[in-house]
């Protein structure tokens, strides 16, 4: 594994977490736990997310320290994280993600897992990246595909 | 590099080796696949699984069952019963049957509880006919079994369409296919030698509104929250495969605490989560 790629991923993860939290706070008026500056919008955070992989991005967000809290649900339950970040020259210069789970298992997990969540993934075209294989759901057999085609034809008839 | 492409257990396989396999080796691989299918397939009437679906009994299973059903028991426990190999009848009733009728029954069968059968390796004792579906780990296990038949010096990489076991000497880069657009990747894995990567997604084995092959045994219906998962695990493609299914149902906290692996998963709302040491990059 190439270390630089990994580091880049982690910083992108942290920035993406901020984006998630901003969105969560913005969409949930009743979330009393939120301490995020309500002036935050998704756009500057989005720039921050881009910034970690592209140095040309610039933020239109005031420099300073920001703090936010957000929750996300997963099949195992609700999880909460607190994020503190510092913006300098319109870029994220420091990010700290603090787990705030009270639930035992979620807490244990978050302690080993601060970062690594994004509320959207842009992705890249396969022609833009160098890979030797692609991993997705299994290709289906001829029999399955024929059955699907037959159903579609019937639906159109 | 030599690539051998074949179709086995209902999907496309490719086995990459340094040199072409000897005739005896390819024959051994094909024979192993056939033996496996003859036991575990629910898509043929002459398999043991098909016989178990007709009548109850004490079924003596081959050696690989110890590993497979033992792992299923672990996954069943870790997912609160969501992963259960007794989903076969339900899956079949929902339309994913041996004839690919793809038409759901009005009232699909409920999934029998795992406790309703007794597994004392090598015998599975059933009190009523049950239809096993080992889709969560069976293919990964078969990849492991096939890998064991190929000399290590070949550095074989086995890709069974979504289940990849890499035996080469350098890492390979594998794209994580976007479940909504096969021309895009949501990330890339650097798959190290000796590791397996398994992908699972609901986008291909799907045949109607909300009907796909990833069944939550607790509800007897296709799951809706997670749409795609990827798991990297050392040494065992079966474990990577089963954990890829488990990530549709259980919290990462539970799975990361119990099983050695790394994961990425995508939710229906587009959210993506991944483990901190995931060996690669997610394109956020």
What does this structure look like?
- The complex is a heterodimer of chains A (157) and B (284).
- With 157 residues, chain A is α+β, with helices and mostly antiparallel strands.
- Chain A has one domain (3-125).
- Chain A contains 4 helices and 6 strands.
- Chain A has helices at residues 3-27, 42-51, 104-112, 142-156; strands spanning 64-74, 77-88, 91-99, 117-118, 124-125, 133-135.
- A 3-stranded antiparallel β-sheet of chain A has the order 1-2-3.
- In chain A, strand 1 (64-74) and strand 2 form a beta hairpin.
- In chain A, helix 1 (3-27) runs antiparallel to helix 2 (42-51).
- The longest helix of chain A is centred in the first third of the chain and has 25 residues, at 3-27.
- Mean pLDDT of chain A is 58; it is low at 1-59 and 107-112.
- Chain B has 284 residues and is α+β, with helices and mostly antiparallel strands.
- Chain B folds into 2 domains: 2-126, Roll (T-fold), CATH 3.10.520.10; 166-282, T-fold (Roll).
- Chain B has 7 helices and 18 strands.
- Chain B has helices at residues 23-40, 48-52, 64-78, 88-93, 138-147, 237-246, 252-258; strands at 2-8, 11-17, 57-60, 117-120, 123-126, 157-159, 163-166, 172-178, 181-191, 195-201, 206-208, 211-212, 215-216, 221-222, 226-234, 262-267, 272-274, 280-282.
- Chain B has an 8-stranded antiparallel β-sheet with strand order 1-2-6-7-10-15-16-17, with helices on one face.
- In chain B, a hairpin with a 2-residue loop joins strand 1 and strand 2.
- The two termini of chain B are 33 Å apart.
- Classes of the chains: A alpha+beta (157), B alpha+beta (284).
- At the A-B interface, helix 1, helix 3, strand 4, strand 5 and strand 6 of A face strand 8, strand 9, strand 10, strand 15 and helix 7 of B.
- Strand 5 (124-125) of chain A pairs antiparallel with strand 9 of chain B.
SSE blueprint:
The complex is a heterodimer of chains A (157) and B (284).
Chain A lengths: L2 H25 L14 H10 L12 E11 L2 E12 L2 E9 L4 H9 L4 E2 L5 E2 L7 E3 L6 H15 L1
Helix pairs in contact in A: 1-2
Chain B lengths: L1 E7 L2 E7 L5 H18 L7 H5 L4 E4 L3 H15 L9 H6 L23 E4 L2 E4 L11 H10 L9 E3 L3 E4 L5 E7 L2 E11 L3 E7 L4 E3 L2 E2 L2 E2 L4 E2 L3 E9 L2 H10 L5 H7 L3 E6 L4 E3 L5 E3 L2
Antiparallel strand pairs in B: 1-2, 2-6, 3-5, 4-5, 6-7, 7-10, 8-9, 9-18, 10-15, 11-12, 13-14, 15-16, 16-17
Helix pairs in contact in B: 1-5, 3-6, 5-6
